[in-house]
Specification:
Blueprint lengths: L1 H21 L4 H15 L4 E7 L5 E7 L6 H16 L6 E3 L4 H6 L5 E9 L2 E10 L6 H45 L4 H16 L3 E7 L5 E8 L2 H4 L3 E2 L4 H8 L3 E3 L19 E8 L2 E9 L9 H66 L5 H29 L8 H16 L4 E6 L2 E2 L4 H38 L4 E8 L6 E8 L12 H12 L3 E6 L6 E8 L2
Parallel strand pairs: 12-14
Antiparallel strand pairs: 1-2, 1-5, 3-4, 4-5, 6-7, 6-11, 7-8, 9-10, 10-11, 12-13, 14-15, 15-17, 16-17
Helix pairs in contact: 1-2, 1-5, 2-5, 5-6, 5-9, 6-9, 9-10, 11-12, 12-13
């Protein structure tokens, strides 16, 4: 009866161990739990689980019950065990004190068990259990072999789960990069974002973008991560890996740059695992993304290469579309200039020329002594009327140069900018518009007079700057702040009161990055304020985390 109870207890313990392992979704957790439970099930004094890399070399060790042991020495001994007994006994083995290797690993021990952990007929690790008091039995070996089989399944499930999570992160990065590129982000800023976001999602230490440089040479134009500044400008030779990826349009993985047999770029020899992915658009590679990890870090997998190639291809296509849109904008601008030239020539210039002829005729008449004050006055009045008509024509031409939504009221334009920012931020920003201390609530009928007052007081010139400031403020918060809330407040006071427009954009994000030297957008906002005799500032929020941007100009 006692034996049956003991066996039942062991069976329940084994079942509990199986269930606990099967429920794990992280590989390190599975391994550590496997070692701990194996020791418990067979009353082992201590245990070690060795994980192997893709080449079969010792990659990591998980321990249980050996806190006082010299770990580096044990790693060396287990490496010998891998060579001498591990490979020779694919189905598990029990060794006693009479074994020479056993004595070298743990001389005071009574029994040692070695059990392989296999996945798809490939050994991915080995479990070593040591008993100081008793000999391991064949039943103990069977129990641990069963537990090892469950551990292998749990490891595979954990890896599949991790792969799914990684794929989800890659997809989100790809979507955000594509959205950013198609919204008209500056090309250099877009490339920097690609390097940074891909490095983060790939868990790489450094990312390089290898792009065409001067004289048909490819060089590192963008870098992010450890040692990034020292890699910018680095040239890549024609016969190297990067150029091979560029020509073939297919990425590759290097297990270790430090161990590479050929290294044509010596500056990369200090790195460990590497991943090359082409920036491929419509079958043609325009550059190469290079991801680097420090020595000793995990190698890049084929799944990571596939994801990196996909994201790089999408980024390259988005860049190409952005470039095409830019070219289209330039063509449109040139067409607009031609039209303006024609309008000025056919309308205003011709009329001004005729007016000049009239005034010149009057001048010659006066010079010849044929002075007729009444006739001269009549000519001058006609000339002034003609000049007035020309001014109106020029104003009409200039008015047509304004952006297509110039006819839309300022409030509607601001609400449109807030709506567009939702895509970049991932949430809707707060938009507050105040006219003479009265906040607009969204009731079009009740707000009609206030909306009209805002348009009348601000004027078209300042209105364009107000829209640009709000757009830049929301864009900066989306790209740099990593905020969970953003608010834009536009306060307009009529000339009868203070006569000013004041903009505040606040967020609860990471704050202003003082190390960022790219300030073209902020400098532009400051210039817009100075043009109207106003001021601009940006800094930390006084009482909360995040950033406060202020822009204010008087209404003259």
């Amino acid at each position: 009866m006692h034996m049956e109870t003991e066996r039942l207890h062991k069976d329940m313990s084994l079942l509990s161990a199986f269930l606990d392992l099967a429920g794990r979704l992280a590989v390190p957790g599975v391994m550590q739990d496997f070692v701990n439970k194996a020791c418990q099930l067979v009353n082992a004094s201590c245990g070690s689980m060795t994980m192997l890399d893709n080449r079969g070399d010792l990659a990591r060790i998980y321990h249980s019950g050996i806190d006082g042991l010299d770990i580096p020495s044990q790693q060396s001994l287990l490496s010998k065990a891998e060579q001498q007994i591990g490979l020779a006994h694919g189905h598990g083995v029990i060794l006693g004190p009479d074994n020479e290797l056993f004595n070298s690993i743990w001389p005071q021990a009574q029994s040692l068990m070695c059990v392989p952990v296999s996945m798809h007929e490939q050994i991915i690790g080995r479990l070593y259990l040591i008993s100081d008091d008793n000999d391991f039995s064949d039943d103990d070996l069977k129990v641990i072999l069963g537990l090892a089989a469950v551990a292998a399944v749990a490891i595979e499930n954990a890896r599949l789960y991790q792969d799914a999570r990684k794929r989800e992160k890659w997809i989100k990065v790809s979507q955000s990069l594509t959205t950013m590129l198609l919204e008209g982000t500056d090309e250099e800023e877009a490339l920097e974002a690609i390097a940074r976001r891909v490095r983060e999602v790939a868990e790489a230490d450094t990312a390089l973008l290898i792009l065409p440089s001067v004289g048909d040479v490819y060089a590192c134009e963008i870098a992010d991560g450890d040692g990034a500044q020292g890699l910018i400008g680095l040239r890549f030779p024609e016969e190297g890996r990067a150029m091979s990826v560029l020509r073939e349009g297919a990425g590759l993985v290097v297990d270790s740059m430090r161990r590479a047999q050929t290294m044509r770029v010596p500056e990369l020899s200090k790195w460990g695992p590497a991943l090359y992915a082409p920036l491929l658009a419509r079958g043609s590679a325009t550059g190469v993304l290079l991801l680097l990890r420090r020595p000793g870090h995990p190698e890049f997998t084929q799944a990571e290469l596939d994801l990196a190639e996909s994201v790089s291809a999408q980024a390259a296509l988005a860049l190409e579309l952005a470039s095409a849109r830019h070219s289209e904008d330039i063509a449109t601008l040139l067409d607009e200039r031609s039209r303006i030239g024609r309008d000025l020539h056919d309308l205003a210039i011709q009329q001004l020329f005729a007016t000049g002829m009239q005034i010149d005729g009057a001048k010659h008449a006066i010079a010849a002594g044929n002075r007729d004050d009444k006739a001269t006055i009549e000519v001058l009045e006609k000339a002034l009327a003609s000049v007035d008509d020309s001014v109106k024509q020029i104003r009409a031409i200039v008015h047509n140069l304004r952006e297509p939504d110039a006819g839309v009221v300022l409030v509607e334009r601001l609400r449109r900018e807030s709506s567009l920012a939702r895509t970049l931020l991932g949430f809707a920003p707060s938009l507050i518009i105040v006219a003479d201390n009265t906040e607009l609530t969204g009731d079009d009928i009740a707000e009609e007079e206030l909306i009209q007052m805002i348009d009348d007081q601000v004027g078209s010139d300042i209105a364009d700057d107000v829209v640009a400031v709000v757009r830049e403020g929301l864009s900066n918060a989306a790209r740099h702040a990593h905020a969970s809330s953003v608010m834009a407040r536009i306060d307009v006071s009529s000339r009868l009161q203070e006569g000013r427009v004041r903009i505040e954009v606040t967020d609860d994000g990471a704050g202003l990055d003082r190390s960022n030297t790219r300030r073209s957008g902020l400098d532009n906002l400051a210039a817009r304020a100075r043009r109207h005799g106003g001021n601009f500032s940006i800094g930390a929020r006084p009482t909360h985390k995040g950033t406060l941007m202020e822009w204010q100009v008087p209404l003259k």
